[in-house]
Amino acid sequence: MDFNMKKLASDAGIFFTRAVQFTEEKFGQAEKTELDAHFENLLARADSTKNWTERILRQTEVLLQPNPSARVEEFLYEKLDRKVPSRVTNGELLAQYMAEAASELGPSTPYGKTLIKVSEAEKRLGAAERDFIHTASLSFLTPLRNFLEGDWKTISKERRLLQNRRLDLDACKARLKKAKAAEAKATTVPDFQETRPRNYILSASASALWNDEVDKAEQELRVAQTEFDRQAEVTRLLLEGISSTHVNHLRCLHEFVKSQTTYYAQCYRHMLDLQKQLGRFPGTFVGTTEPASPPLSSTSPTTTAATMPVVPTGAVLAPPEEAALCLEEVAPPASGTRKARVLYDYEAADSSELALLADEVGPEGQEELDGPGTLNLHNSAHSHGTPGPWGGAVGVSGSDYRSAGAVPNVYGPVQP
């Protein structure tokens, strides 16, 4: 118990001495031992490495797991030394929903078959994502985390110890400086003309005491200097090890890029196979292709509109037997003039558009397309976007307008 009390009192005295020295340095009342430029560069490099490693680690965790709640849960499991439970990826969850939708909507329908195929592809994408997360965590996140929780903690501990050794060294220097000043003052103060021997003896004793204090301060300074130099060398070796840390992180970065490349290559291959499978399905629309226009007939517009089949509500349309054609495969019309029936009313937004009325066909006026995206109006009633007597019917098909992009999609079947 006596030994512990002495040690506690000694530690308290050392802490108080360091606190006084640190405070005086902050106020500029005490000298501070400066480190050499190379050592300062090593410290700055280590701090920069630590800061950027933390940022890269956090952002990579966000990339692999965007859900913050899931990241907090995984963090708690790691701190409790418990195994993180397996989590379903978003692709696997989407695949599950698509498979359930296909079984309920009908797996034999074109939509149901497509849902099944897409769900299988999404399931493979989810499995690839799971493998990528696992590989990236082991090859990239774990080394970064080990550096922050292992090497950097050791470096920080040695740096704090070096800071304490420096404070002790500067405190010893200040104590020696004060002792020498007091010794010089005690040497010059005694009055040798003093007739009372007692005062002379006291002055000589004080001078001898300050000599002992100077010797003691010098001894403490030598010990503090030795400990400081030893600790500075240990810290320097650890800081120089940051170079090997960079080499290790570089190798881990290559592994991360390799795993990410493999992941995206798998995703591309799975989606390419899915696209090929969907392209072989009848009635599947892939890309921007459109079905071919129906053949022209010699019937009048009214007859054509009257004979159009009406599909009852809730009826299931049979899938077309032929694949969709590209726009380049559609043959141009046989005659130079084509007409279109308006499906619904449309109010022109500005002078570059036509105002149209539903269920009207244009028997007059001549419009022609000079090229994609260009519409020349020769009817004076429509040259400024004003509806004519026939309500905005034009001499081109609705598909031509859609490809040109000049008029909204409000046109019905093409009339001869």
TrEMBL record:
Disordered: region residues: 362-399
GO molecular function, a single term:
identical protein binding
Coiled-coil segments: 207-234
Domain BAR, residue spans: 24-287
Under InterPro entries, the record lists:
AH/BAR_dom_sf, BAR_dom, Endophilin_SH3RF, SH3-like_dom_sf
Q: Which CDD domains match?
A: BAR_Endophilin_B2 (cd07617)
Is the keyword Coiled coil in the record?
yes
Q: Name one Pfam family in it.
A: BAR
Is Cell membrane given among the entry's keywords? Answer: no
Q: Which UniProt keywords apply?
A: Coiled coil, Cytoplasm
Q: Which GO terms describe its cellular component?
A: cytosol; membrane; nucleoplasm
Q: Could you tell me where this protein is found in the cell?
A: Cytoplasm
Q: Name one GO biological process term.
A: membrane organization
Q: Which SMART domains match?
A: BAR
What family, per the record? Answer: Belongs to the endophilin family.
The protein here is known as SH3-domain GRB2-like endophilin B2
